[in-house]
Amino acid sequence: MNNIIITGLETKHRTYARVADPVAEVRDVGALETETQSLEQQVVSFLVSKDIEVQSENFSACHLLPKKRHSTISGPPAIIVRFVNHKHKVALLRQGVKLKGTKVYLNEHLTKKNADIAKDARLLRKNGKIQSTWTRNCKVWIKTNGL
């Protein structure tokens, strides 16, 4: 109930072994700062740069999800964020419209069954059989075409 999944966000992973090269360090100061940030800090800084109000103190956990073995989808791995309180999750999801135009998406973490239902509902919306679909509190909602 307190998790969201962030997809499409490019992150830099920490490297634990670095070759000491003073010339490269002077050139790549910005890259070095990004590289030393934790995943949680990178997520917060990206969201704040998009005028989304979020604080890292509200995160209980933040880590990458493993990619599926037979997935044809390429791109950065998904990030799961667990919140301390449900109201912080809802507040962040409401601000998700500010990400329009980017390729980053905020979604609820659904069970496999509900995720399949939501996927089928999106296909029905795309085919014009229903008017709209959305999720709220891990439940899938659909609006029919007025029948």
Rg over CA atoms? 18 Å
**Sheet having the most strands:** 4 strands, antiparallel
Overall shape: it is: globular
Helix % is 25-40%
Give unreliable regions as ranges.
none
Return the CATH class of the largest domain: Alpha Beta
The total strand number stands at 6
* Average pLDDT metric: 85
Overall structural domain count:
2
Alpha carbon gap, first and last residue: 32 Å
- Which class best fits the helix and strand makeup? alpha+beta
Strand content: 15-25%
CATH architecture of the largest domain: 2-Layer Sandwich
Number of helices: 5
- Enter the CATH topology name of the largest domain: Alpha-Beta Plaits
- The SSE order reads EHHHEEHEHEE
Strand order of the largest sheet: 2-3-1-4
